[in-house]
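=== RUN LOG ===
request id: a7f3
mode: sequence -> structure
chains: 1
length: 146
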Amino acid sequence: MQHLGDITKLHGGKIPPVDVISFGSPCQDISSMGNRGNLAGSKSSLFFEAIRIIHEMRCATNNRYPTIIVWENVARALFSNDSLDYKAVLSALAGAEIPMPADGRWANAGMVCGGGVDIAWRLMYGFNFHCAQRRHRIFVLADYRG
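=== RESULT ===
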């Protein structure tokens, strides 16, 4: 694993391409312990910087790399901002508009397809997976291989 520094200063097309990018964006703006803002908050919006880097890398490699993205965050990410934040996460990963569920709530596990990307998620108890927090976490896997 390489640590490349300040995410706002990186360009995805100028770093070595990789098959897998795994990240967790700051949760202070969406967590139940934080300010309960939304994904557009000053900290949680760093999610979009990671998406920018992913898209830049894919563009620079003719959409070959990365092939897999793993994103992890607090369980409240599913419900933040009336569930619109999670819709934004899925749409950003897909590079296409992902519709809200008919009932307006995301399930604790699911899958969507859009923009040639298969995206699956599951809410899991983090401690069971060597995550330091003893609470539920959302894990999202985006597969760009088609």
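=== NOTES ===
The beta strands are 20-23, 68-74, 109-114, 117-125, 136-143.
The chain has two helices and five strands.
=== END ===
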